[in-house]
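Handout, page 2. Input:
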Amino acid sequence: REFRFQCAETAILSMMRTWPGLLQMTEPGAKNGVSHLQALIDILHLDNSYVRKKILLLLYEVLNVKAPTDLSNFSMAVESTNSTSFRENWKLAEDFIAKEGVDILPRLAKSRPNLLESHIGYLLAALLKTELPDALVKVIVNASSNELSILATILLGELLQLSYILLPREL
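Output:
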């Protein structure tokens, strides 16, 4: 069972990380008008904590957001996802100045579009269309474990933050 989940996760990640795959995932189906992405998000409404956790971790990976490592309590989980906290690849012997600068400082080139931001922006718009925030709130409220609630809460915050930064106000 775990192997099947891992294969499915790899296939979904491979599709979502490319433009053609993302367009295929967001295109409404011919029979019922539901996109593959909508079907994936609808899985969060099922009452299966194992599958919900797998989908939440998949969404962290798709959005290129660091998933919390310590889920014992909320403050520790938030601290583990802090983008300005020290990381292992910021060590002095491993060119930490360059790595830290790339991770923390904003991009200075304003004349060229950032294709990664465009890709994530399109993905965010598609996720908002599938009503992901409502599904995350349902997971938070109806979670059977504290870990699942913490994962969904932090993902909701990251989703809203990325939407504020990358999407126009109309969405």
